[in-house]
Amino acid sequence: MGNLNLTLAIGEYDHVRDVLDGTIRVPGVDLTVMRLPIEEMFYRATFFREFDVSEMSFGKVISLHASGDRGFVPLPVFPSRMFRHSSAYVRSDSKLTQLSELAGKRIGVPEWAQTASIYSRGMLAHDCGVDLKSVKWFQAGVNEAGRKEKVKLNLPEGLSLTVMPDKSLSQMLLAGELDAVLSARAPQPFTNGDGSMRRLLADYQSAELDYARRTGIYPIMHVLAMRRDKYEANPWIAMNLFSAFNEAKNRSVARIGDITASFVPIPWTAELIKKTTEWLGPDPWPYGVDANRTTLEAFATYAYEQGVCARKVELADLFPREVQSSVKV
Questions:
Q1: Residue 167, Cβ neighbours under 10 Å: how many?
Q2: Closest by alpha carbon to 84, among 127, 52, 129, 38?
Q3: 8-state DSSP, 220
């Protein structure tokens, strides 16, 4: 019997590159790789389940799981992690300068169940003292009208969320209809550099480092997810995929930290790796459940509190048992 043929949709990150180009093989598996834009990949995976294995929004996966849709089997492989203090945007003439000042304001999000938005609201509630029910929330596309939620919501009583199908968040913010926008993707007027928008926090990096040190949370945006029918037919795929991607990540970190040659076109990356390990520990980008339990538990709590999940999801039930522990020699 030959190898299993599986389709894989994922972003072209350096820390997955060695799997995508075949440098690291997944034992027993031949991969057909598709490198797709994030929004397209998530849309096709969520609505049509087009791929055997896919990078997926953590928020979408955990919401579907809580609602009883077990079509995805997430693996504790995390292609994207981002602190989100940088994802709050305001008009350039706004007097807001602190996250705590967002209490009682009008705030836009591209999707209530967007992973970045879940973390941002969790940070506001748990770290900044903002009552989410004091805020008037609005949902719309960041730069284009018509964006819709991809999962069913169970919003807590007393929380105000208004869908704006005919406007964009950028349009509303510039028109004075919003006080701030929380978005993983920066609004177009900000990226264009026209001076009409700015980040709420000027020194967001210092705020993020302080947050990481105090809370132990390093936000996980995306997970690697298998279609359940593929997993149940061959459960061994889970650990084989996990091991291959973990090795690719370790090689990537070593490559970037090599002072012999420049593996990315940015200076001082070796020094940055050194500082990052001082800040976040010897493995600055860990995979697995145990190494990320604080972050994973916090996210499960936020998603339930905010009505993204119909119930609190237990990690032991979310990730397959094959990847929740490993052999010790």
A1: 18
A2: 127
A3: B
DSSP state of 310: S
**Nearest CA-CA partner of 172 in 209, 153, 197, 204:** 197
Give the angle 29-44-221 at the CA atoms, nearest 5°: 80
Count CB-CB contacts under 10 A for residue 276.
16
Q: Which residues pair with 56 in a beta bridge?
A: 223
Among residues 196, 134, 148, 200, the alpha carbon closest in space to that of 170 is found at 196
Residues 6 or more apart whose CB falls under 8 angstroms from that of 194 comprise none
Beta bridge partners of 226: 53, 73
pLDDT for 326 beyond 70: no
From CA 61, how far away is CA 65, in angstroms rounded? Answer: 6
Residue 239 in contact with residue 324, Cβ under 8 Å? Answer: no
Stretch 304-326: mean pLDDT: 93
Instruction: Quote the pLDDT of residue 1.
Output: 67
